[in-house]
User: Which sequence fits this backbone?
């Protein structure tokens, strides 16, 4: 199993996938540091010092950290998709898979090993970038999220769910179709979350209901919104209200049931992928 | 001794297409069996079923006594696919090392060196797949299939990308495998090679075995030619057993005999005859 995990990772390294990701991430973090510094400075000027109802540092810190989480989720999701989109059909069509599958290691182990490799890398990436953005936010404005660890873990969980979806898709679809499809599902899930926030703001039960269904179908958005929610879970008053709207889909507590469902969902999607792969003719 | 590969009444359907319609085949230990047939005959499907890549619709296939596709069956075989690729960034040695780990082989560097030597790639151990010619990759594929000393090798068109010298290397290699007691099922379009190296030949057409036997059994006698001072005389209906009688008659008729040849068809002619008969 370790051999397959390392094989998948080395393939990604040799394809220079990680080099591209590293360069883009450094670029993003540099821009984030610059932008965060400016955001804290300008918000203080905008709100004015000593405001009791709207602390400028909380406002700026929570908003830029939420923005960083969206960017981190997006980069992590893209990495997840590119690490898994060709694992089955793509590699089989290229003739890379057959020599591996006929070995005693077997299909189930092979698929789970590739998933473990991809999910591990994507999760580690997201946790690292998240930790760096938290450090940058603290450095630039002295603000730290109300919860530090849980949002990072939930963000990592979200990209693992995306990796599982792309892996399952790779059993059925050619790489390009799978990549496009998974990223569209990802975008659709985030859009549904945004609609839900609009629904809550304008008291539209229908929109909120649609978002709720989307959360159950694609729980990565539930994890993401819950992570955002935890950033300012202890912040109350006007600042707290403004922050619930947050950037790119807002924030909303998902609740324990949905978080547990995310874990079950992961097992179910992986199970479907394993089952479909084990009976697939290659 | 039980067959290393045994297929019983194997059927495979892809939707409405019947790829295999009840195939029986057996490969004994150390036997080199050639699998022949036109494109779409079902040869590759049969090989893929044997190594567990494809599931049969009906019938039973066993490898070394274990059901095809099971872990025990996969541990007993080596497979070279018709269309395969190794990661371009790996060296020949790394490809073999990866397959050693997957095959749980304990052969280590010694086994890798032996295999590369066997396929004529001893000097290419550190060469990356990307820098290899197609023929070198094919030979590396054969070496990969032999990792872990399998008792059965399934080779699907192993010489398709090789030049004549490369084919000769593979021919010598196949003879070496026979010497080592490794059974081989060789799926090939190159009838001349099959004729040269295989102990047994199975011809498949439209999903059925249409002929099987040793190459000499499949070849057909096509008359007798007698060389006399008047030229070559042909007896198209005669067989080997008729030669003494024919020579006696020619000599009795006052001619001197300079040479006699029993005409036999090549495997290619026999193959075409069988396949065309089925087609008609």
Assistant:
């Amino acid at each position: 199993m370790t051999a397959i995990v390392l094989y998948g990772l080395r393939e990604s390294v040799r394809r220079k996938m990680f080099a591209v990701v590293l360069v883009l991430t450094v670029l993003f973090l540099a821009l984030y540091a610059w932008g965060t510094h400016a955001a804290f400075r300008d918000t203080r000027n905008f709100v004015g010092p000593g405001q009791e109802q709207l602390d400028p540092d909380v406002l700026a810190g929570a908003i830029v950290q939420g923005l960083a989480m969206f960017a981190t989720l997006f980069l992590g999701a893209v990495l997840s998709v590119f690490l898994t989109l060709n694992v089955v059909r793509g590699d089989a069509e290229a003739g890379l898979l057959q020599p591996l599958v006929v070995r005693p290691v077997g299909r189930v182990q092979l698929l789970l090993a590739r998933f473990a490799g991809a999910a591990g890398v994507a999760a580690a990436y997201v946790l690292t970038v998240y930790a760096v953005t938290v450090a940058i936010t603290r450095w630039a404005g002295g603000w730290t999220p109300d919860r530090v660890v849980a949002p990072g873990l939930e963000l990592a969980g979200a990209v693992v769910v995306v990796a599982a979806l792309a892996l399952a898709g790779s059993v059925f679809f050619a790489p390009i179709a799978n990549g496009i499809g998974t990223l569209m599902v990802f975008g659709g899930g985030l859009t549904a979350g945004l609609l839900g926030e609009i629904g809550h703001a304008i008291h539209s039960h229908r929109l909120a209901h649609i978002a709720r269904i989307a959360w159950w179908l694609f729980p990565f958005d539930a994890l993401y919104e819950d992570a955002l929610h935890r950033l300012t879970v202890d912040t109350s008053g006007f600042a707290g209200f403004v922050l619930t709207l947050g950037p790119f889909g807002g924030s909303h507590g998902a609740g324990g049931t949905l978080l547990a469902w995310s874990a079950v969902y992961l097992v179910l999607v992986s199970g479907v992928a394993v089952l479909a792969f084990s009976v697939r003719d290659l | 001794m039980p067959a290393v590969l045994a297929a019983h009444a194997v059927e495979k359907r892809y939707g409405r297409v019947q790829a295999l319609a009840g195939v029986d085949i057996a490969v004994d230990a150390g036997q080199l069996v050639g699998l022949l047939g036109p494109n779409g005959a079902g040869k590759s499907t049969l090989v893929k079923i044997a190594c567990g890549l494809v599931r049969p619709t009906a019938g039973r296939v066993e490898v070394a006594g274990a059901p095809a596709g099971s872990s025990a069956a996969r541990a007993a075989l080596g497979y070279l696919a018709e269309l395969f690729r190794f990661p371009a960034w790996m060296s020949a040695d790394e490809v073999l090392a990866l397959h050693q780990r997957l095959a749980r082989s304990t052969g280590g560097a010694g086994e890798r060196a032996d295999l590369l030597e066997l396929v004529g790639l001893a000097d290419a151990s550190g060469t990356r797949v990307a820098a290899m010619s197609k023929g070198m990759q094919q030979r590396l594929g054969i070496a990969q299939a032999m990792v872990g000393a399998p008792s059965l090798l399934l080779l699907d068109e192993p010489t398709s990308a090789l030049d004549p010298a490369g084919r000769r290397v593979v021919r010598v290699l196949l003879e070496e495998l026979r010497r080592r007691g490794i059974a081989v099922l060789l799926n090939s379009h190159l009838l001349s090679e099959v004729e040269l190296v295989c102990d047994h030949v199975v011809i498949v057409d439209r999903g059925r075995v249409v002929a099987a036997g040793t190459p000499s059994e499949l070849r057909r006698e096509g008359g007798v030619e007698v060389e006399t001072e008047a030229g070559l005389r042909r007896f198209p209906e005669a067989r080997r057993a008729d030669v003494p009688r024919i020579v006696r008659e020619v000599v009795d008729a006052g001619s001197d005999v300079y040479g006699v040849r029993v005409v036999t068809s090549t495997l290619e002619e026999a193959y075409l005859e069988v396949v065309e008969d089925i087609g008609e």
